[in-house]
Write a structure and sequence with these properties.
Blueprint lengths: L5 E4 L5 H11 L4 E5 L4 H15 L3 E4 L6 H15 L4 E4 L14 H29 L2 E6 L12 H21 L4 E8 L8 H11 L3 H12 L8 H12 L10 E4 L7
Parallel strand pairs: 1-2, 1-4, 2-3, 4-5, 5-6, 6-7
Bound molecules: nicotinamide-adenine-dinucleotide (NAD).
Nicotinamide-adenine-dinucleotide binds next to α1 and α4.
């Protein structure tokens, strides 16, 4: 059923987005890859996906800080691929600092990339999904869309916002064959969290691996990082016909973090 659908995954040059791209491509889903990478590198990545999985794949380097780039990203995707059936708002950044010392430009960037970009992408992609009476919108939020942590004011505000946006869009799309969900992962082993691990290693004079273990177990009862592919498999399920009644949900995949 998913064979030949088109998925646009923001931030698919790294981490969860890249792993999800592999999971979807293995099912024959065509891809719009996206992220901060040179056009040459991005086109090479897309060519590798096409060769490995026999799918159509293109790349776009739109900067999600700019609304007009997001509009162009969706327009180009629809022009070149025919539609965007599955929109995965995954790109995100992090910065940790107390609220009183939080740099304004970091606050603005986190809100723009982690929240507003998803809103804009949905706005531009939705008419075609509604027209086709089929669509899947999956917002990669975080456990921090459900609970707070110190030094993450911008990230938590953005991710809680993304969960709220998910609920409203699910209501607005319910009669149009389009499901809208948020995934709320705990710790996932990707470059996004390396700064936080390095800061612990430096402060406590311990190895990177020991610092990683400390970071994970501080809040997450399951004492291991998730692999990004696990998130990809979860996303694939949400795209399936079996998941057509799951909409408006903020779904934790968090090793019991929010069970406490
Ligand atoms: P990552 O750093 O590996 O990947 C981030 C991606 O976003 C990259 O492809 C990057 O190019 C893209 N990106 C960043 N800024 C951009 C911009 N201005 N314009 C366009 N693209 C931009 O991170 P990841 O861990 O794979 O994170 C993916 C998503 O998962 C994020 O939304 C993150 O908040 C969320 N998440 C991550 C974890 C974790 O523990 N890693 C946990 C919960 C949620």
């Amino acid at each position: 059923m998913l064979n030949e659908k088109v998925a646009l995954i923001t931030g698919s040059t790294s981490g969860i987005g890249l792993a999800t791209a592999h999971v979807l491509a293995a099912q024959g889903i065509n891809l719009v890859l996206h992220g901060l990478m040179s056009i040459d590198e991005g086109e090479e990545l897309a060519a590798e996906f096409s060769a490995q999985y026999g799918i159509k794949a293109i790349f776009d380097d739109a900067d999600l800080m700019k609304v007009e780039s997001i509009e162009r990203l969706i327009q180009h995707a629809i022009e070149q691929m025919g539609s965007v059936d599955i929109l995965i708002n995954n790109a995100g950044i992090q910065h940790t600092e107390s609220a009183e010392n939080f740099p304004l430009e970091k606050w603005n960037a986190i809100l723009a990339i982690n929240l507003s970009a998803a809103f804009h992408a949905i706005q531009y992609a939705l008419p075609k999904m509604k027209h086709n009476n089929w669509g899947r919108i999956i917002n990669v939020a975080s456990v921090h869309g459900l609970v707070g942590s110190v030094n993450k004011s911008a990230y938590c505000a953005a991710k809680h916002g993304l969960v709220g946006l998910t609920k409203v869009l699910a209501l607005e799309c319910a009669e149009h064959g389009v499901t809208v969900n948020a995934i709320c992962p705990g710790w996932v082993d990707t470059p996004l969290i390396n700064n936080q691990i390095s800061a612990i290693a430096e402060k406590q004079d311990i190895s990177f691996d020991d610092a990683k273990y400390k970071l994970v177990t501080a809040k997450q009862p399951l004492p291991e990082m998730m692999a990004p592919e696990q998130i990809g498999e979860f996303i694939l399920f949400l795209c399936s016909e079996s998941a057509r009644s799951i909409t408006g949900s903020a779904l934790p995949m968090d090793g019991a973090w929010t069970a406490q």
